[in-house]
Amino acid sequence: MDIRHIAGELNPYTKQKVQEGQRAKNSSATSSSSSRGDKVQLSAEARLRGAALAEAGGASDVRADKVRDLKERVRNGTYKPDIKKAAANLLRDDINLLT
After folding, report:
1. pTM score
2. Within its chain, how far is the Cα of 47 from the centroid?
3. How many helices, marked H, and strands, marked E, lie in the chain?
4. How distant is the alpha carbon of residue 93 from its chain centre?
5. What is the pLDDT of residue 20?
6. Most CB atoms closer than 10 Å: which of 7, 15, 29, 84?
7. How far apart are CA 21 and CA 17, in angstroms?
C-alpha cells in the first residue's frame, strides 16, 4: 500500500531523500540471496556492556535472596535506608572520580 500527499506536496529535499530510499530498497531487493537479511553492527562500547552484563549475571556474588528481601521491604514500605551512610558513599564516589 502506498499513501501519498496526505499533508500536501513534500519539499524537494525530502522528496529526493524518499526517492533515494526507494532506489536503495529496489537495488537491495534485486541483489543475490546471500546478501539478503538484516545486519547489526554493535559498537565496541555496546559489546563491552553486553560482556559486563553477562559476567555480572553469572557471578556467584549476586545475592538473590537479599535482593528479594529488599524488594519486598520496599513494596511493604518497611525499608528505611540510612540516609547519612548513602550521602557519605555518594561523596566518597565523587571524590574518587575527581582523583
Report:
1. 0.33
2. 12
3. 4, 0
4. 25
5. 74
6. 15
7. 6
